[in-house]
C-alpha cells in the first residue's frame, strides 16, 4: 500500500548521513597554515578556478564541501572565482575529454602567471574509470603541465585542503606554459 509508506516519509525522522568525523582543531590548523602560506607566497588570498573536464561530479561535491560550515574556507582567504583571469590555481577535475581539451587550453591561457594547475581526483590524473573511452584522451597532463596531483575517487575535502597547502608551501615555481599549447 502506498499510504503507509507516504505517511512514514512525511512524518518520520529524516534519513540522513551523520556529519563528517573531522577531529577538532585539524581543519582549523590546516586553514591557518593555508592562509599564512598564501600570504607568504602570493601576498594575498588564494583564488581558485575549478574546471570540470567531464567528470561524474563526485569531485565537485567534495570541492563544494570546502565551502560548507565544517570547512568554511572563504572565511580564511581561500576563494573560488568565476573567471580564470582572477585565478592563481586551476583545480581541474575529470578526465581530459575531446570536447573539453580546447576549453582547458583556453582557460589556462587566460590565467595570469604564476598559475598552478592541480589535477584533483583519479580521473584528472590518468582518466580514471573513464580511461579507454573513445571520448577520453587521458589525464589532464596530456594537455597542460600539472603542478600537483591529488589522487582519490573522489578526494576528501581534507585531502584537497592538504594538497593546496602542500602546493603553497613547496618552494617550486609554477610550471611554464607548454610551447604551442593554446
TrEMBL record:
Domain of life: Bacteria
EC number(s) from the headed UniProt entry: 1.6.5.11
GO MF, one example: metal ion binding
Pfam assignment, any one: Oxidored_q6
Keyword line: 4Fe-4S, Cell membrane, Iron, Iron-sulfur, Membrane, Metal-binding, Oxidoreductase
Needed cofactors: [4Fe-4S] cluster
InterPro entries: Complex_I_20kDa-like (IPR052375), NADH_UbQ_OxRdtase-like_20kDa (IPR006137)
Enzyme class, UniProt record, top EC level: oxidoreductase
Domain named NADH:ubiquinone oxidoreductase-like 20kDa subunit: residues: 56-167
Similarity field: Belongs to the complex I 20 kDa subunit family.
Protein name, per record: NADH-quinone oxidoreductase subunit NuoB
Amino acid at each position: 500500500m502506498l499510504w503507509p509508506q507516504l505517511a512514514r516519509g512525511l512524518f518520520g525522522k529524516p534519513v540522513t548521513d551523520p556529519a563528517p568525523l573531522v577531529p577538532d582543531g585539524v581543519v582549523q590548523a590546516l586553514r591557518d597554515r593555508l592562509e599564512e602560506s598564501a600570504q607568504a607566497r602570493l601576498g594575498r588570498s588564494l583564488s581558485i578556478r575549478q574546471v570540470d573536464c567531464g567528470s561524474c561530479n563526485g569531485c565537485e561535491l567534495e570541492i563544494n564541501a570546502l565551502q560548507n560550515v565544517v570547512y568554511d574556507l572563504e572565511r580564511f582567504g581561500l576563494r573560488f572565482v568565476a573567471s580564470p583571469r582572477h585565478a592563481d590555481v586551476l583545480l581541474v577535475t575529470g578526465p581530459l575529454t575531446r570536447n573539453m581539451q580546447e576549453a582547458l587550453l583556453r582557460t589556462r591561457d587566460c590565467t595570469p602567471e604564476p598559475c598552478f594547475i592541480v589535477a584533483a581526483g583519479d580521473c584528472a590524473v590518468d582518466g580514471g574509470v573513464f580511461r579507454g573511452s573513445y571520448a577520453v584522451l587521458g589525464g589532464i597532463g596530456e594537455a597542460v603541465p600539472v603542478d600537483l596531483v591529488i589522487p582519490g575517487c573522489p578526494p576528501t575535502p581534507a585531502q584537497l585542503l592538504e594538497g593546496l597547502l602542500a602546493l603553497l608551501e613547496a618552494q617550486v615555481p609554477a610550471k611554464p606554459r607548454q610551447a604551442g599549447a593554446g
